[in-house]
Specification:
Radius of gyration: 14 Å
Helix content: 25-40%
Strand content: 15-25%
Length: 152
C-alpha cells in the first residue's frame, strides 16, 4: 500500500477561527509544486481535513492532476486528531494509493507512528510537504519512508 501525506499549503495567519484560514498565494504555489510529484500516480482516494486550508489544498491537487476522484472530508485529520484513531480509520482503505491532506502536529505524528511504531520521532513536515510511505498495512512501525518533498 502506498500512503501519501500532504501538509496543507501556507495559510493566512488569522481568520475568525483556525479552521477558517485560507491558503495564501504562496501556499497555492507550493501545493502545486508538491502536486507535481503525484503526476501519473494511481490515486484511489483523497481524504482531507474539514479545515478550509486542507480542503483548498486537496482541491488544488485534484485539479492539477486532472483526476475525478471525490475529496472525502475526514474529521479525524485535524491538527489535534489522534494518530491511533487514524490507523483505525485507515483500515477502511486497504487497496491502492491514498492521499491524506492534513496539518501539523497530526501529520508528523502519524508518519512517526507508521514509521517508528511511536510518536516520539515525528516526521518534520513544512507547509506543502509531501511524504511517500509504503508498506503492507497501516499499522504502527509497519511502513517505510520512500521520499519527502519540501517545496521551499
Amino acid at each position: 500500500m502506498r500512503l501519501w501525506l500532504l501538509r496543507h499549503g501556507e495559510a493566512e495567519p488569522q481568520a475568525r477561527t483556525d479552521a477558517e484560514r485560507h491558503l495564501t498565494k504562496r501556499g497555492r504555489k507550493d501545493v502545486l509544486l508538491s502536486a507535481a510529484q503525484l503526476e501519473g500516480r494511481p490515486l484511489t482516494a483523497i481524504l482531507a481535513s474539514p479545515y478550509v486550508r486542507a480542503q483548498q489544498t486537496a482541491e488544488l491537487v485534484r485539479e492539477a492532476l486532472g483526476v475525478r476522484l471525490p475529496i472525502t472530508t475526514a474529521p479525524w485529520l485535524t491538527p489535534d486528531s489522534s494518530p491511533a484513531e487514524a490507523l483505525r480509520q485507515l483500515d477502511n482503505y486497504v487497496d491502492g494509493e491514498l492521499l491524506l491532506v492534513s496539518h501539523n502536529p497530526f501529520v508528523g505524528d502519524l508518519a512517526g507512528l507508521l514509521l517508528h511504531g511511536h510518536r516520539q520521532q515525528p516526521l518534520p513536515m513544512q507547509t506543502a510537504s509531501l511524504a511517500e510511505l509504503d508498506g503492507e498495512m497501516y499499522a504502527a512501525g509497519s511502513m517505510e519512508l520512500l521520499a519527502v518533498v519540501h517545496p521551499h
